[in-house]
Amino acid sequence: MASSHLLCNTFHFQSSCNLSSKSNISSFKPRGPFSFCQQLQFPKTPVVKATGKKVELVYDPDGRINNLADEVDKQAPLSRLTLFSPCKVNVFLRITSKREDGYHDLASLFHVISLGDVIKFSLSPSKSIDRLSTNVSGVPLTEDNLIIKALNLYRKKTGTDNFFWIHLDKNVPTGAGLGGGSSNAATALWAANQFSGCLATEKELQEWSSEIGSDIPFFFSHGAAYCTGRGEIVQDIPSLVPLDKPMVLIKPPQACSTAEVYKRFQLDKTSQADPLTLLEKISRNGISQDVCINDLEPPAFELLPSLKRLKQRIAAAGRGQYDAVFMSGSGSTIVGIGSPDPPQFIYDEDEYQDVFVSEANFINREANQWYQQPGSSSTICDSPPEFTRAIE
Length: 392
Prior knowledge:
Elements: E1 4-6, E2 12-15, E3 28-31, E4 55-56, E5 80-98, E6 104-123, E7 131-134, H1 146-158, E8 164-169, H2 180-195, H3 202-209, E9 224-228, E10 233-236, E11 246-251, H4 258-264, H5 275-285, H6 297-303, H7 305-317, E12 324-327, E13 334-337, H8 345-348, E14 356-361, E15 380-381
Parallel strand pairs: 7-8
Antiparallel strand pairs: 1-14, 2-3, 4-15, 5-6, 6-8, 6-9, 9-10, 11-13, 11-14, 12-13
């Protein structure tokens, strides 16, 4: 798993037409083994039988969870499930227009990374309420939490009556621009579907998820996607960067409110770089500073001037160390691509003693499987978590 701590003590694209802000993703004619406009195809995971009290979940060739019902015990349905809930970074984020409904259209390269939470699900005897606990303070445990919203959404769409005890082991900081809450919601939808025998397809889960959050559909991609609209229009693409490319995430204690960032956003002051041109550059040359454009940086830096200073200092101190330094999403995480190590001043100066620091790398998921926690080879049905805080 990516290590994190709190500091206290050649796939090339060839365009067949002139790229412009009105370019469509289908204008790319890729050279290589993949079609840019098709979903990635991954080999099916072979069925693996398991023994013992700790049971490995099994996926059949059709992608549905087996639960070992045919292999181990036909009388033992799935009752517990532990899943990894990874976060993401926006390699670039262009805001292209303002919509009549008040939202903004964006175009962004999203990529899942190895930093994430761990969520334990257990079937509850209750048929009326979910119980949620967590290892950190400040996380809502009511229906305001996207996990509970996702479970309510799944029951609404499918008519199932499963309720759960959920324990969220939170590693991703909140207000970080890393999509931790959105990932939790997507993971909860996936889990609910497994407990119900996969009543819904992945495509249905992806479509439903947009009703409760714009970033949630992305996590039903295979890990790398070109996202447009409010972020809910997801085009799966092959990963354009090596999965072992290291990075460091540095987040100050202050969070950026997405709503407050957008209040300060001025469309006429954004970059004019065409998003598809940025994709093409990344596919040819990899990640570099000139392609890591985030139109939300100026309003975020206006909201939190110390964040601008942090980015500038990381970039200056890490010359030659990082391929690019940029803010992810609406902030407040600064990402340094190319090295897992923060610059020395992060350790030396009292001003930064409370920053969150984590190394990470890019990850994907295989078709019909959820994301695997780095260092783990399987999803495990394990003992129920201890619940110290729960909604009633």
